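User: what does the whole thing look like in 3D?
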Amino acid sequence: MPGAQVTPVTAHPRLALNQWTTRRWSLAEAIDGCVRHGVRGLGVWREKVAEIGIAEARRRIDDAGLAVTSLCRGGFFTAAGNAALAENRRAVDEAAALGAPLLVLVAGGLPAGSRDVTAARGRAQEVIAELVPYAASAGVRLALEPLHPMYCADRCVLSTLAQALEWAAPFDPSAVGVCVDTFHIWWDPTVLASIAAVAAAGRLATYQVCDFMLPIPADALLARGMMGDGVIDFAPMTAAVAASGYTGPVEVEIFNADVWAEDPDSVMTRMVSSFAEFVAPSL
Amino acid sequence: MPGAQVTPVTAHPRLALNQWTTRRWSLAEAIDGCVRHGVRGLGVWREKVAEIGIAEARRRIDDAGLAVTSLCRGGFFTAAGNAALAENRRAVDEAAALGAPLLVLVAGGLPAGSRDVTAARGRAQEVIAELVPYAASAGVRLALEPLHPMYCADRCVLSTLAQALEWAAPFDPSAVGVCVDTFHIWWDPTVLASIAAVAAAGRLATYQVCDFMLPIPADALLARGMMGDGVIDFAPMTAAVAASGYTGPVEVEIFNADVWAEDPDSVMTRMVSSFAEFVAPSL
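Assistant: Here's the predicted 3D structure for the full assembly of 566 residues, as structure tokens:
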């Protein structure tokens, strides 16, 4: 296997690869990579699934003995027009067909030409309310993901865990949970209490880890880094997640030009060892 | 006067220039620029004052009939060593000598090599507690400024108005207030309630306006823009400030490479008209 390396550290049983971390890999390559590196869970992306089709994707994942930990992603509810609901229903269908337990939702930013963040938030909540019954009947949990406030205008008007809890409140916890991602929330002075509140509400749907890199790159979306390479202390948030009783997978999701340029097998090796060093001790 | 232009819009009586907006100008030039454009308040920077000395700076400002609205800035409490307190006492002395009603404080980021944001926050609060009696006896109010969360690691571990209120709580409102700056807080889903809470606590020390520009530039500090050029809706926050009973100056503080490259007189003209269009109607 070209690029294959001996993994010096055994992969933690709860470590999951979010496949955008090894973006160059096809889904089939990511599945093989997980098997090779002992990683048992895989968060998949719709774009990658579409390359081979859902049935084939599910067969390969099942044959490899991997668990699908999430489907990325739905959302972008704030764009003008009515396309968002239909597109999100398709994403729910795909999640159900893949056996993904949850669909990660990114709310969307300000509509083109608008500065009305309050209206955009209201619109996102409206579309979520329309989507929830459809997702619930399909057995797919929606995971609201607050994104870092630097993305509020162009990507996601949902910015904190507390706000995500408010958005989720009208719905049953089995239908709407919250995605806790270290990159987006580490700065929040209430982050530990908010993680506890999310869990107490029965809504801690998934825990994602990656680091926050400085300086922020020209494409600010790519400021995510391997654990240990940036400024985040993973121990307190991970301990809060563990104390909350969450026992599910922990996905590593990294958008980073250097990581994407690296040999994906090397990324897997680093991911396994970084997870063991910075995340696992508090889990 | 080279570059002087006729200002088509009369400057709002509460509009103040933060002199970093016209960074190329010396303090003397900024004073002349304010007079020329009918701007009555000036937020001054220590670096610019130092070029001519405090006595001369004060004489020129007084002779021009301008009000000093703030001194920028103190803070950076989280750096290793004990230099921060002494440096901030000097900043307080300068504010008192200039007749500045308040000293703006930027808390500082993570100390070099540290990822412990909780410890950095604790350290900042400790130094503030040491500084308060000195500032109070000098008649200088300290204005805690929460900065956008994207600066949490490298610039300011104080990120929200709610957090600033917590930090200020042990001290008399006349001694410690909060700086409300649209750029840093516009994304906050609780921003309007937080502005009201800051004001209800008697701590709304100053209101600063500028826009949030996308994409975030390579130097993320320079993402500030002229009102109307970015994504911020100034009406709701300005209305909240007005409803709170704040009647003080409104400073325009812009860090932006394009604005700094522009003729400062042109910047002043745009500032006066942008303020009239986007801020004044809600004030």
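In plain terms: Chain B has a mean pLDDT of 96. The first strand of chain B starts at residue 15 and ends at 18.
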